[in-house]
């Protein structure tokens, strides 16, 4: 009886596509080997930078604070995020168009969107953490204790999972009867919706509303937090302290503006079928450029991290000499 009920659902779905083809960047495919090398170096640098942050935060007790806990968690998710997309992009640059199975495509789409959404929520938490540390320094140790930090990270992961899972399931239930060429370098949800031969109006609106909620909620909270931080910095009595604080904040603003602008351009629009070609370039910024800048901007420019790295390298050098 169960199998009899299952068959009409497959027929009703109408999907005949067994695999998709990732188009990549056909206009510049003749530069494939050069682009492969550039993106491979960027990928390795991003993984190394973010892995260093995670490692030294876990290894050194001086960095086991709420700020570095959130930064190391964010770096871990960044490693996972770029690893979900960049290896396939490298294969495309090296070999040209690449096929990907129906199931693998939706798994990649889920991992990409889920990790991206979690990243936005973590950015929000990090901005609130900085606001609390700078604007409410006396209450900071009480508010941002270890339990609160774990709860906030867990909330980011759970909320992202609840929001994204339903959307991915809805898209996977659409009919795909051809064509099967995705005009992107990974299984982008907007491109998948565009390829469906079903009525996609509801799914498009659902994707738009979820993207709007995730990106704009995160953006608004981050703007409010950093606005209060700037006001607090302006009131600092020492010009040297103000200059140092503004230098740090300006670096953060560069990364945040790249992240938010590229994602608003890609996702916060009601018609996902428009400007798919332009989405590829914006997605490249989001998946290659910002993960490369994050370790440099957020942590590796920090004097405390520099000190920890120098001491770690010295210990390693001494141990080798022995």
Automatic annotation (TrEMBL):
Function: Putative odorant or sperm cell receptor.
Origin superkingdom: Eukaryota
Bilayer topology term: Multi-pass membrane protein
MF (Gene Ontology): G protein-coupled receptor activity; olfactory receptor activity
Keyword Glycoprotein tagged: yes
Origin species: Lynx canadensis
Keyword terms: Cell membrane, G-protein coupled receptor, Glycoprotein, Membrane, Olfaction, Receptor, Sensory transduction, Transducer, Transmembrane, Transmembrane helix
A cellular-component GO term for this protein: plasma membrane
Compartments, as annotated in UniProt: Cell membrane
PROSITE patterns reported in the protein's UniProt record: G_PROTEIN_RECEP_F1_1, G_PROTEIN_RECEP_F1_2
Keyword Glycoprotein: yes
Name of protein: Olfactory receptor
Regions that span the bilayer: 34-56, 68-94, 100-128, 149-169, 205-234, 246-268, 283-300
Ranges for domain G-protein coupled receptors family 1 profile: 49-298
Entries under Pfam families matching the protein: 7tm_4
Classification via SUPFAM superfamilies: Family A G protein-coupled receptor-like
Main localization (coarse): membrane
CDD domains in UniProt: 7tmA_OR6C-like
Protein family membership: Belongs to the G-protein coupled receptor 1 family.
